[in-house]
């Protein structure tokens, strides 16, 4: 089974459920920007009084459409994430008519509409903007984790240093995603279309890390050299306070305990 057939089966199952007023394809497939690797994101519309019952019955409703090998209910909204046989990935969320009407019509595709809900969808696309608290917390966490490099080197815990680099690299990717001023940034495995080509190339050029001192130092340096200028731009954009004292203390600490190349850390902008 391919994704189009999965969408057809899910639409048929949900359209036969009286509590479901509409079924909409959202995400990249709803916007018409999907590629061969994109999953399926479905939005079900139902009156608020039916949300709890509909969510409780979701496993049965999905089972009527397809066999699954994984299911998970995430959050209180909630979002249901599934993997069907053949490793077809799909997510399902539920919204009320009032919530649906706030969505931008160009960001969804109608699969089933019992009560002409489509005519009420008049939302305006609004770019996703980072907030100051998120940006400052991310920067402080990056500096804190970077400051653990002397610990893993001093203890010879090089394998744990690789894990620490993974955390830093993840925060770098998060920061780069936050710089993109787009309505829908897409899933976590989509980045190339969000940032400039030269920045993506610098990300790809960060060296692969091995569990040995020289590799750990080079990888941490490369990651910090791209993260810190990105973080500075985000702080300026959101008005978040830059942790100057923390950054200066870290620069001194890493220069003395790890490598002189960290001496310019506070100037990487």
Features:
269 residues; Four Helix Bundle (Hemerythrin (Met), subunit A); 2 domains; six-stranded mixed β-sheet; 6 strands; 14% strand; elongated; nucleotidyltransferase activity; Polymerase_NTP_transf_dom; Polymerase nucleotidyl transferase domain-containing protein; NT_sf
Task: Describe the protein's topology.
Blueprint: H1 3-15, E1 22-26, H2 27-31, E2 40-45, H3 51-56, H4 58-63, E3 68-74, E4 79-84, E5 88-95, H5 97-100, E6 109-113, H6 132-146, H7 149-155, H8 158-178, H9 197-204, H10 213-238, H11 244-257
Parallel strand pairs: 2-5
Antiparallel strand pairs: 1-2, 1-6, 3-4, 4-5
Explained architecture:
The chain is α+β, with helices and mostly antiparallel strands and 269 residues long. The protein folds into two domains: 3-120, 2-Layer Sandwich (Beta Polymerase, domain 2), CATH 3.30.460.10; 132-267, Four Helix Bundle (Hemerythrin (Met), subunit A) (Up-down Bundle), CATH 1.20.120. The protein contains eleven helices and six strands. The chain has a six-stranded mixed beta sheet with strand order 3-4-5-2-1-6. A hairpin with a 3-residue loop joins β4 (79-84) and β5 (88-95). The chain starts with a helix and ends in a 12-residue tail after the last helix. The relative contact order is 0.11. Residues 13-50 form the Polymerase nucleotidyl transferase domain. This is Polymerase nucleotidyl transferase domain-containing protein.
């Amino acid at each position: 089974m391919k994704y189009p057939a999965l969408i057809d089966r899910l639409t048929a199952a949900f359209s036969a459920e009286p509590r479901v007023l509409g079924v909409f394809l959202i995400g990249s497939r709803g916007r018409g920007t999907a590629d061969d690797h994109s999953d399926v994101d479905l939005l079900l519309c139902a009156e608020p009084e039916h949300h709890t019952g509909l969510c409780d019955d979701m496993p049965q409703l999905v089972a009527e459409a397809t066999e699954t090998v994984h299911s998970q209910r995430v959050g209180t909204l909630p979002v249901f994430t599934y993997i069907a046989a053949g490793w077809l990935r799909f997510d399902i969320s539920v919204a009320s008519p009032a919530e649906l009407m706030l969505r931008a019509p160009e960001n969804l595709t109608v699969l089933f509409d019992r009560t002409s809900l489509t005519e009420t969808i008049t939302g305006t696309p609004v770019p996703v903007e980072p907030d100051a608290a998120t940006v400052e917390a991310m920067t402080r966490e990056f500096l804190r984790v970077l400051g653990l490099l002397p610990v893993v080197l001093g203890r010879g815990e090089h394998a744990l240093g690789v894990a620490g680099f993974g955390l830093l690299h993840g925060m770098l990717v998060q920061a780069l995603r936050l710089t993109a001023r787009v309505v829908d940034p897409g899933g976590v495995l989509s980045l190339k279309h969000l940032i400039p080509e030269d920045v993506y190339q610098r990300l790809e050029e960060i060296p692969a890390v091995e569990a040995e001192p020289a590799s750990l130092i080079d990888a941490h340096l490369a990651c910090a050299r791209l993260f810190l200028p990105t973080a500075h731009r985000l702080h300026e954009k959101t008005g978040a306070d830059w942790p100057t004292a923390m950054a200066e203390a870290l620069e001194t600490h890493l220069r003395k305990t790890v490598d002189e190349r960290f001496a310019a850390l506070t100037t990487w902008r």
